[in-house]
# Entry
Amino acid sequence: MLIAVISDSHDHNENICRAAQIAAHSGCRELLHLGDITSPAAVRALASFPGRIRAVFGNCDYERSELRRAFHDIGGSIDIGPLAFCLAGKRVIMMHEPANLADLANSGSTDIVLYGHTHSAECHHENGTLILNPGECGSWSSPSSFAILNTDDLSVVHVPI
# Structure
């Protein structure tokens, strides 16, 4: 199963829209946003994505009730991280700020750890756990990108926007 992983979009609606369109055309069935979407208008930019959308709050997501309502309006959800769930048979933890990454990887209780906040793309395996930061979608300090994760083999492609 292909999953789009996006983070740190910071109201860059054009990039959010492009990432959602690329993800849909690439066959992604779910989109995970790792925080710092920042406004309801940015959430609405995700509305073109045809699959399930889940998100966690980031440190710049101040309008939490409005963001919850906007995600609800497009059929998605946003929660406080870290958020743990199963996806395509894999145990996933998603969060905004990287916390206890090594402990999570060494715990044996998760297959995939997703985080944002640093605005830097990263992908590595530690003790059989995939640790992934898709980079920033918002063009603040690095080239804009997101990631497509294949849950079948835990391969990742970073996609420039």
Notes: The radius of gyration is 14 Å. The CA atoms of residues 4 and 31 lie 5 Å apart.
